[in-house]
């Protein structure tokens, strides 16, 4: 049977999507694979199909027990023998499962990572007595400190490859930036892995960000044309999901709150009503959405700023799975950034805190971006993109501009004089000739010191962001990001290229949240 025949037979789908077929062929050839695919892209098939085609057992590592049960149920419905092992099972159930495994009656076994090496490795010793054909690691980004959802229990998976030397491993995730991806490959000890990255671009989603002033009024204006549509509104706190849902109801909308503190029965009912279009709006914390597959969500609103780009992208990605035009709207305020900064700083692990702050900084940068938002998001996930997508607020707005060539020259030469070793705040203080003792004595001697005193600090910060957006400057990828010149800078410095800057102040100003050097 070919993979596509098996797809039709076991899953009832007529064709593969994204890189599914290539991934499956690699796995069938016993090669290690890392697959990055957006949420809803169809990662599960990439190991479920090989599992039914290969002789023996496929072990699936998955972090969430609730999702495990759903997956196992739907496999069983398709006639594929699958089971999960978790602490909620009785001894009797476990004995029955062990027998089935011994008799080769199970094709897929789902496990939480912490189970694998528990009980002094009893389970792993048992699994090694079976014919294991494949190991799948779902949500593989959980193994990396650099990821947004690090789970220490995933670190144990580093030993998996050593225990099952010749068994292929497929690692899957919907979210990994550059560092996380590298970390996954290293930590899992994958052998000469094939890496598949499906495009993360969601062409049917329009991205919008607006400064938050009166968020309820802004929200009503946004919802005005969407009374018949389904949408998700994300809030930071449980309390605000409840009060906002109540306010929306009072304003005549069909809305319910959803957060992890609610009774399971209420959560299930709300989710069900939303899936059936009986409730139009879910006002939720980020607890809502995992594993929910509703295709006609027309918009996702963040009334509070998300903690990181990964989370934001997953949450907005819940809109428009049916491919129809959909909107992402984010209301941003410096106050939110400060609140999130406090949360990040109280993490008990200083390294973890630093990573969270860096991710928060990237999120702030996205909110303040003066360039195509889609391009920023795709580049964040290491994917190239054109600089005009025609479907984000930046690309759809016409800005009033002026000849900012002189301003650009001042900014670029300041970065040059400072040897490309300082962040935006320092560069601005330097340009404005700040008396601040933070400006080093040696820099006060430089020719460009103080040549921009006539422009306010906020305007300078905005110009630097615009120049970055246009590619005349770049922000380094370090924990303490610094401004650097680019290949495009020279033409401006030499007076060969004119630069247009935006006239009116359209974006609220805010300092980066991490200290800059
Ligand atoms: P992910 O884990 O990447 O978020 P899933 O594996 O849950 O995504 O797949 C998302 C949905 O797409 C599921 O309903 C799945 O059955 C469906 N799907 C997966 N592959 C295909 C395909 N080739 N054709 C049609 N539907 C598919
Ligand atoms: Zn754009």
Automatic annotation (TrEMBL):
Catalytic activity line of the entry: Couples ATP hydrolysis with the unwinding of duplex DNA by translocating in the 3'-5' direction
UniProtKB keywords: ATP-binding, DNA damage, DNA recombination, DNA repair, DNA-binding, Helicase, Hydrolase, Isomerase, Metal-binding, Nucleotide-binding, Zinc
GO cellular component, one term: bacterial nucleoid
One GO-annotated biological process of the protein: SOS response
Domain (Helicase ATP-binding) ranges: 24-194
Cofactor: Mg(2+); Zn(2+)
Keyword Metal-binding: yes
GO molecular function, one term: metal ion binding
EC number: 5.6.2.4
Domain (Helicase C-terminal) ranges: 215-361
Superkingdom of the organism of origin: Bacteria
Record family assignment: Belongs to the helicase family. RecQ subfamily.
Stated name of the protein: DNA helicase RecQ
Organism, scientific name: Mucilaginibacter frigoritolerans
Organism lineage string: Bacteria, Pseudomonadati, Bacteroidota, Sphingobacteriia, Sphingobacteriales
């Amino acid at each position: 049977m070919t993979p596509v025949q098996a797809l039709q037979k076991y899953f009832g789908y007529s064709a593969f999507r994204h890189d599914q077929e290539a991934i499956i062929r690699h796995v069938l050839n016993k090669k290690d694979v890392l697959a990055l695919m957006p949420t809803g892209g169809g990662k599960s098939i990439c190991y479920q199909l090989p599992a039914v085609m290969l002789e023996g057992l496929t072990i699936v590592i998955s972090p969430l027990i609730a999702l495990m049960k759903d997956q196992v149920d739907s496999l069983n419905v398709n006639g594929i023998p699958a089971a999960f092992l978790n602490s909620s099972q009785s001894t009797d159930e476990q004995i029955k499962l062990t027998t089935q495994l011994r008799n080769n009656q199970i094709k897929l076994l789902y496990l939480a990572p912490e189970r694998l090496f528990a009980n002094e490795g009893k389970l792993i010793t048992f699994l090694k007595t079976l014919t294991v054909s494949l190991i799948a690691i779902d949500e593989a980004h959980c193994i990396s400190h650099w990821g947004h959802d690090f789970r220490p229990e995933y670190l144990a998976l580093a030993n998996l490859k050593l225990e099952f030397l010749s068994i292929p491993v497929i690692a899957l995730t919907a979210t990994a930036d550059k560092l996380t991806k590298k970390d996954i490959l290293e930590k899992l000890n994958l052998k000469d892995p094939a890496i598949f990255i499906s495009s993360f671009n969601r062409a049917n989603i329009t991205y919008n960000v607006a400064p938050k002033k009166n968020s309820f009024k802004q929200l009503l204006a946004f919802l005005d044309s969407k009374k018949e549509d389904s949408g998700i509104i994300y809030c930071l706190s449980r309390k605000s999901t409840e009060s906002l849902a109540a306010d929306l109801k009072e304003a005549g909308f069909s809305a319910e709150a959803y957060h992890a503190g609610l009774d399971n029965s209420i959560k299930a009912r709300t989710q069900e009503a939303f899936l059936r279009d009986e409730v139009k709006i879910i006002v939720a914390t980020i607890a809502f959405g995992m594993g929910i597959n509703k295709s006609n969500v027309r918009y996702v609103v963040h009334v509070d700023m998300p903690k990181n780009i990964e989370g934001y992208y997953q949450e907005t990605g819940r809109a428009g799975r049916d491919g129809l035009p959909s909107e992402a709207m984010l209301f941003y305020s410096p106050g939110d950034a400060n609140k999130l900064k406090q949360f990040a700083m109280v993490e008990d692990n200083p390294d973890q805190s630093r990573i969270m702050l860096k991710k928060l900084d990237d999120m702030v940068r996205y909110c303040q971006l003066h360039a195509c938002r889609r391009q920023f998001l795709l580049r964040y996930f290491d994917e190239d993109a054109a600089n005009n997508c025609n479907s984000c607020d930046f690309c759809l707005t016409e800005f009033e501009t002026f000849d900012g060539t002189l301003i650009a020259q001042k900014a670029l030469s300041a970065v040059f004089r400072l040897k490309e070793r300082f962040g935006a705040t320092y560069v601005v203080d330097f340009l404005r000739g700040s008396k601040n003792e933070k400006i080093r004595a040696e820099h006060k001697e430089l020719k460009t010191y103080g040549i921009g005193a006539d422009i306010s600090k906020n305007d300078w910060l905005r110009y630097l962001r615009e120049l970055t957006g246009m590619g005349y400057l770049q922000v380094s990828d370090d924990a303490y990001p610094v401004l650097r010149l680019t290949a495009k800078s020279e033409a401006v410095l030499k007076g060969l290229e004119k630069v247009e800057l935006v006239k009116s102040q359209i974006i609220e100003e805010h300092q980066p949240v991490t200290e800059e050097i």
